[in-house]
Amino acid sequence: RKIINTVNAPQAIGPYSQAIKINNLLFTSGQIPLLPDSGEIISNDFSEQVEQCLKNIEAILVEESLNLDSIVKLTVFLVDLSDFDLLNEQFIKYFGHRYPSRSVVEVSRLPKDVKVEIEAICCYDK
Questions:
Q1: How far apart are CA 59 and CA 56, in angstroms?
Q2: Which residues contact 55 (CB under 8 A, 6 or more apart)?
Q3: For 10, phi and psi rounded to 5 degrees?
Q4: What is the Cα gyration radius of the chain?
Q5: DSSP character at residue 100
Q6: Confidence class of residue 125 from pLDDT cuts 50, 70 and 90?
Q7: C-alpha pair distances (Å), 107 with each of 24, 73, 81
C-alpha cells in the first residue's frame, strides 16, 4: 500500500489521501473542482467544474506515470441529474471513444457546495 500525493492536484480538505496504490490498482479520492494552487472552486459553471475534476484526477495519475487511459472505472456524484448530458459532453471531450466504465449518482450535497465530484479506479497494467 502506497499513499500518492502531488502538489499538482488540490490538497485533501480532510483526513484522507489523494490516492492509494495497492498492487496494480490506484484508487483516487473524490476530486471536486478545486484549483490546485489556490484551493478555490474554479467557477459555478457545471462543465468547467467537470473539466477541473478530470484535470485533478489526471494530475494524480501523472504523479504515477499513468494517464486517462489507465482509468478503468469512474464514479460521478452530481447534485442535479439534469446535468447528465453536459457531463457526457465533457467525457466525450476527455475520453474520445475509449470510455472507462462509469456510475453516476445524484446526491443531495457535495463538499463546498460544488456541483460534481469524481473518483477513479485505475490500473497500472494496460
A1: 5
A2: none
A3: -60, 140
A4: 14
A5: P
A6: confident
A7: 30, 19, 9
38, 35, 8, 3: which is closest to 22 by C-alpha? 3
pLDDT of residue 126: 55
| pLDDT digit string, tens, across residues 72-111 | 999 999 999 999 999 999 999 999 889 999 999 999 999 9
Burial of residue 16 (CB within 10 Å: 0-12, 13-18, 19+) is: exposed
SS3 1: coil
Could you give phi then psi for residue 62, rounded to 5 degrees?
Answer: -60, -35
Q: What is the pLDDT of residue 13?
A: 87
Distance (Å, whole) CA 77 – CA 105: 5
Instruction: Please report which residue ranges of 9-98 form alpha helices under DSSP H.
Output: 46-63, 84-95
Q: Which three cell numbers stand for residue 70?
A: 489507465
pTM for the predicted model, two decimal places: 0.95
**Distance separating alpha carbons of residues 72 and 65, to the nearest angstrom:** 16
The residue to which cell 499513468 is assigned: 66
* Residues 47/89, Cβ–Cβ less than 8 Å: yes
